[in-house]
């Protein structure tokens, strides 16, 4: 595929690339050349109409400015208080305001104009995530016929939840303007196709693509992965660091952004259930929950933080001993190498989202284990990762007894079974490694029906 790669994502990394997706996109941009466009983290009333250059690297990074009001309405508002809860089946938390939607569309239109000015005919555009759903439709309205791909990192919403969106009929039109709609799982693809099937404007062509008005979109799953070689290497040399006097014998680890989708209250309560039901009173399992702060300007995130402090206080108050604090709730971000070291040190990785696009922590935990003496992954069946990771102990996080039972089983699991389950999970993690994911996505995008050749394709499929 000739032409530059134009990547659009909400955040553009500053400094050296780190983290799987960032490195993978960085590598793809290095290989092909191109531009990485994202929002400037500093809101400003100045310079709203320009993309400014960041850094001096073989490809360009360009940041677009948001005013404080736009950041509030487009980012905290429509993206994180409307789309995020809808996609994660938390419609009770949705906050609809007309200015949210207006600024979401305005920011996307401004971005589309800025991108269109700079596009060459062979360039390929790859848009990431729910902040930019209408971008392709807007680029098309400006006459752009380049290949444009979209990848949704979060779950595709249920059709009934979609109806809660203001002007729900826009959603299908936004997505149909892309050449390739990439989703995390086969379940997501099924929900997207259900949406198109229910829409009288959509028609299924014989090759499985969807024709919607004058557009043809391919819908497919691309389960995202991690840089497993790098994590395995880090885990071999990483040091979990000191624990203080109470060095846990049985360590259960959780590491999540502090988000209401991650099922953290359920995780804490299930751990409390485990402590309550202990037969061996000398057993002293410790749950270490690292929760990196996230979106503190949205009320639902402040609420969940307060809830977690209350639950962890109650559980510790009930079960702590002089030399043992069963639940350690660390509400801050931990250095990457140390986090990987803690994962390797842990007997159990506990991942309990109520809804999650993929969940990379589950994959990182597997990659961080010593294959000859691995820990056990306890994984919510509502994480995208559960669709393929059948070697994990799959749980329903709403069922506290089931989760407590799975942790108990994991802590007592014989070495043979641990090795077998870990090998099964590691094979899945390696198959979906991030470099393969990027290549697969871009190759599929290159093979999609180009927007210009529409009438010929229609004739062939009729
Ligand atoms: C979205 C989707 C999808 C966590 N705490 C610390 C830390 N982390 C790192 C983890 C992991 C990343 O953050 C979190 O990734 P997840 O996939 O678990 O979750 P989201 O942030 O919600 O990501 C998700 C993903 O996009 C990719 O498509 O899988 O479903 O929601 O890498 O290790 N990293 C450091 N310190 C921490 O304290 N350094």
UniProtKB/TrEMBL annotation:
Determine if Protease is one of this entry's keywords. no
Tell me which stretches of the chain form a coiled coil.
none
Keyword list (alphabetical) reads: Plasmid
Q: Tell me if Repressor is a UniProt keyword of this record.
A: no
Q: What is this protein called?
A: Trehalose-6-phosphate synthase
Q: Which organism does this sequence originate in?
A: Thioclava litoralis
Source domain of life is Bacteria
Which InterPro entries does the record associate with it?
A: Glyco_trans_20
Q: What family, per the record?
A: Belongs to the glycosyltransferase 20 family.
Pfam entry (one): Glyco_transf_20
PANTHER family, per this entry?
BCDNA.GH08860, TREHALOSE-6-PHOSPHATE SYNTHASE
């Amino acid at each position: 595929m000739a032409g530059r790669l134009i990547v659009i994502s909400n955040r553009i990394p500053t400094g050296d690339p780190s983290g799987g997706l960032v490195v993978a996109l960085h590598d793809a941009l290095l290989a092909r050349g191109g531009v990485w466009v994202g929002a400037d983290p500093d809101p400003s009333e100045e310079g709203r109409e320009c993309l400014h250059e960041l850094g001096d690297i073989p490809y360009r990074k360009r940041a677009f400015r948001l005013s404080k009001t736009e950041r509030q309405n487009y980012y905290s508002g429509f993206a994180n208080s409307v789309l995020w809860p809808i996609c994660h089946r938390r419609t009770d938390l949705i906050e609809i305001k007309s200015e949210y939607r207006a600024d979401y569309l305005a920011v996307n239109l401004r971005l589309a104009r800025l991108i269109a000015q700079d596009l060459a005919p062979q360039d390929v555009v790859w848009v990431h995530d729910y902040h930019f759903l209408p971008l392709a439709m807007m680029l098309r309205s400006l006459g752009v016929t380049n290949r444009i791909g979209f990848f949704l990192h979060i779950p595709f919403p249920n059709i009934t939840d979609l109806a809660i969106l203001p002007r729900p009929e826009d959603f299908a039109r936004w997505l149909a303007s892309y050449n390739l709609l990439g989703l995390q799982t086969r379940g997501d693809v099924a929900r997207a196709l259900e949406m198109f099937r229910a829409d009288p404007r959509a028609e299924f062509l014989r090759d499985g693509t969807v024709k919607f008005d004058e557009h043809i979109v391919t819908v497919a799953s691309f389960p995202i992965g991690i840089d497993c070689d790098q994590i395995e290497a880090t885990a071999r040399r990483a040091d979990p660091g000191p624990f203080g006097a109470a060095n846990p014998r049985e360590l259960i680890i959780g590491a999540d952004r502090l988000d209401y989708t991650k099922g953290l209250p359920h995780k804490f309560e299930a751990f409390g259930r485990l402590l309550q039901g202990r037969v061996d009173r000398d057993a002293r399992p410790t749950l270490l929950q690292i929760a990196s702060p996230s979106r503190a300007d949205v009320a639902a995130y402040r609420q969940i933080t307060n809830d977690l402090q209350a639950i962890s206080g109650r559980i510790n108050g009930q079960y702590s001993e002089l030399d043992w604090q069963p639940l350690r709730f660390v509400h801050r971000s931990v250095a990457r190498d140390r986090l990987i070291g803690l994962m390797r040190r842990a007997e159990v990785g506990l991942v309990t989202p109520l809804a999650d696009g993929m969940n990379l922590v589950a994959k990182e935990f597997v990659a961080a284990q010593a294959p000859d003496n691995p820990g056990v992954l306890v994984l919510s069946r509502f994480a995208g990762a559960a669709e393929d990771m059948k070697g994990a102990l799959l749980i329903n996080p709403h069922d506290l007894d089931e989760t407590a039972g799975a942790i108990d089983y994991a802590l007592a699991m014989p070495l043979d079974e641990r090795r077998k389950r870990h090998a099964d999970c590691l094979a899945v993690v390696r198959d979906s490694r991030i470099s393969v994911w990027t290549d697969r996505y871009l190759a599929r995008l290159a093979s999609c029906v180009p927007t210009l050749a529409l009438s010929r394709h229609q004739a062939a499929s009729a």
